[in-house]
Amino acid sequence: MAGGSRAVKAEKELEVVTLMTRLYCRKKHKCKDGLCPACEELLQYVKMRRSKCPWGDEKPFCSNCPIHCYKRDMRERIKAVMRFSGPRMILYHPIVAVRHLRETLRQKKRIESEAKKNV
Q: From CA 89, how far away is CA 42, in angstroms rounded?
């Protein structure tokens, strides 16, 4: 994978998390413009953890990752955002949702095939 496409992948991942966090905040916290302080803190934490990911450019989605590098409270908060926003993304951002789902399934298949090779 070329360096440019890696940067694009990271940007797309952050775009998805940002959209999901905004949707969550708008619906749960009734924020119409921007994010509430708690959701802004969570999004900044996600961006910081992404920049320090030990997988680097080969990073899987966090849900597919064997390492849990988030602090417990932040992991619970982002899970709540994902659980709430994930199903709703198809209504609010259908193209992004389908693209993300497709990539998630590809990663899971890749992980499974690598595990079978190592057995």
A: 19
